[in-house]
């Protein structure tokens, strides 16, 4: 099931395992930038109006390392899909059966 921008997710592996954070950006179908997760330090050369130095930047996370957190019951879940009356798909929490979006 697809994750989306602004979803709350639980990190399942890597150095930020166990953290909960919000998806900031979708990079491609399988990779997402998650706030303050998988942060890498990069050296940046000084530019005209910017100081050089070390900048911290999030690296994309693969979706298999992320699990959606339900906003209603606050548990990590792999949601099931439900087709709504108007034909659109919604994600439903397996724990509390509430619609996530
Ligand atoms: Zn729930």
Secondary structure elements and their pairing?
Layout (H helix, E strand, L loop, with lengths): L7 E4 L8 E7 L4 E4 L4 E6 L8 E6 L2 E2 L3 E4 L6 E2 L2 E4 L5 E4 L9
Antiparallel strand pairs: 1-2, 1-7, 2-3, 3-6, 4-5, 7-8, 9-10
Zinc ion binds next to loops.
Description of the structure:
With 101 residues, the chain is mostly beta strands. It has one domain: SH3 type barrels (Roll). The chain contains no helices and ten strands. It has a six-stranded antiparallel sheet, with no helix packed on it. Strands 4-5 form a two-stranded antiparallel sheet. Strand 4 and strand 5 form a beta hairpin. The two termini are 12 Å apart. The structure holds zinc ion (ZN).
Bound molecules: zinc ion
**Number of contiguous helices:** 0
* Total strands: 10
Q: How large is the radius of gyration?
A: 17 Å
Could you name the CATH topology? Answer: SH3 type barrels
Please mark out the parts with pLDDT under 50 across 5 or more consecutive residues, or reply none: none
Q: Which architecture would the CATH scheme give at its second level? A: Roll
Summarize the structure.
The protein has 101 residues and is an all-beta fold. The chain is 0% helix and 43% strand. It binds zinc ion.
Q: Which labels suit this protein?
A:
single chain; 101 residues; mainly beta; SH3 type barrels; six-stranded antiparallel beta sheet; two-stranded antiparallel ribbon; elongated; binds zinc ion
């Amino acid at each position: 099931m697809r994750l989306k921008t602004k979803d709350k997710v639980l990190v399942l592996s890597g150095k930020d395992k166990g953290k909960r954070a919000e998806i900031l950006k979708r990079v491609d179908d399988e990779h997402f930038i998650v706030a303050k997760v998988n942060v890498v330090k990069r050296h940046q050369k000084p530019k005209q109006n910017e100081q050089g130095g070390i900048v911290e930047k999030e690296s994309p996370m693969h979706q298999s390392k992320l699990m959606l957190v339900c906003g209603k019951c606050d548990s990590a879940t792999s949601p099931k899909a439900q087709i709504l009356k108007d034909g659109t798909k919604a994600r439903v929490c397996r724990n509390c059966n509430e619609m996530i979006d």
